[in-house]
Amino acid sequence: MLKKLIGVLVMLRECVTMSLENIRGNKVRSFLTVLGILIGVMAVITLITTVNGVSGSLTSSFSSMGAGTVTVSVSGSDLKAGLEGTELAALAALESIDGLTPSVSLSARVSRGGSYQSRISVSGKNAFYFRINDVVTRGRAINVIDEDNMSFVCLINAEMVETFFYGVDPVGMKLYISGIPFSVVGIFSDENTESIVSMFSGSPDILIPYTTALKMNNDNLVTSFTAYLAEGVDSETASAQLEEAMAPMFSFEEDCFTVTTMSSVEDTMEEMLSMMAALLAGIASIALVVGGIGIMNMMLTSVTERTMEIGLKKALGAIPWQIQAQFLIESFLLSMIGGVAGVALGLLLSVVLSNVMGTAFVLSVEAIALGVGFSAAVGVIFGWAPARKASRLNPIDALRSV
Does one domain contain both 272 and 175? Predict the structure, then answer.
């Protein structure tokens, strides 16, 4: 038994040696065949690794923007369209909530002197927003007195300063918003106002008291707000308390409001990115199939060219599985050479793309295993038919064809 096993191992070693010699003997043809597998594996590795890096960066950004917050959107019912100030105060007093900031938006025509711009984004905020977010770079923030009095005061960003107050200190100056004179009390930075809302709708250009924004919208109800969690409280607990407190405000009717946590947003984003990665990997795998067809074509050509060699081996006593193993090993080696090279180039390209895109490089063991495993499978599957054809050649017919 041991002698038989040693004989098989020696035969396999000879097959590997002969396969490598045949690959070296046809350098150009072997290179072109390997190139198809290389491109396919490189594409799979690059796409999956890059998407994983982008996913990690997006998840990190989402977490940093929404850490310790819960967003509530009110769709309302037939009897109640939103929340009043007293109801917002009651929600802010919940044990799990540190405070909340209403979100009231409007688009306005802004002017000063002879300059004007339309469709400027104006957002209504409360004093708590400025206490939590350090956005004021000059002047003062909106305070509780501004909220209670519905004061016509505003903070503007750098773009508004350049547009309407170029070369002039804007603090204390007047700016007309929808024809109403507002006093500029401060300047805020766009870089410090990142949130999930601003990611999709853009950062506001002007901040005013939310009560003033409601008045300009001819409304007194808030339909969206962000709740900041108390220290040590998780988002699930806060969401449950908010839902319990808001349910009686809408007479326990269903689908009157939606509480969104960052974890649910992150889960949805990760699911979408995973689906995209799988789709892109599937598309890239087509190149591997094309490479496999190239391997089959080369091996069929090799069988035709080596008909005499096959006939001589069979005449000297080689059995079919030995002939089949030799050609199958050669096909496997061709595919694995392309697979290993594709993995190396794919990882290198992923590093370059990560640096260009400014995302983190995430080494994906699954992607490497997929690329190598797929290339090995391609070598075996597409090399099987040529190897079987070689093993079934009649030695007399093979020698006669010389």
Answer: no
Domain end among 192, 221, 250: 221
Q: Residues 125, 142: contact at Cβ < 8 Å?
A: yes
Instruction: Give the residue, 199 or 232, on which the prediction is more confident.
Output: 232
> Are 37 and 108 in a shared domain?
no
Which domain-ending residue is among 221, 245, 278? 221
pLDDT tens digits, one per residue of 223-232? 999 888 888 7
For 171, residues 6+ apart whose C-beta sits below 8 A from its C-beta are 138, 139, 184, 185, 186, 187
Q: Which residue has the tokens 């006669």?
A: 400
Residue 130: domain span: 104-221
Reported confidence tier of residue 199, pLDDT bands at 50, 70, 90:
very low
Q: What is the pLDDT of residue 162?
A: 92
Angle between helices 85-92 and 235-246 (to 10 degrees): 140
Bridge partners, residue 104, by sequence: 124
Does residue 123 have a pLDDT over 90?
A: yes
Give Cβ neighbours of residue 72 (< 8 Å, ≥ 6 apart): 224, 225, 226, 227, 242, 246, 257, 258, 259, 260
Q: What is the pLDDT averaged over residues 122-127?
A: 93
- Structure tokens, 22: 């045949």
pLDDT tens across 46-79, in order? 877 887 777 666 655 554 555 578 888 998 888 8
Residue 233 counted as domain residue: no
Is residue 165 situated within a structural domain? yes
> Is there a single domain that holds both residue 200 and residue 292?
no
Mean pLDDT, the chain, as a whole number? Answer: 80
Instruction: For residue 197, give Cα distances in angstroms to 65, 73, 203, 209.
Output: 10, 12, 8, 18
- Report the pLDDT value the prediction gives residue 297, as an integer from 0 to 100: 76
The predicted pLDDT at position 200 comes to 46
Return the amino acid letter for 169: D
SS (H, E, C) 218-230: CCCCECEEEEEEC
Query: Is there a single domain that holds both residue 127 and residue 26?
Result: no
Residues 45 and 141 in one domain: no
Query: How many structural domains are present in the chain?
Result: 2
- Give domain status of residue 256, yes or no: no
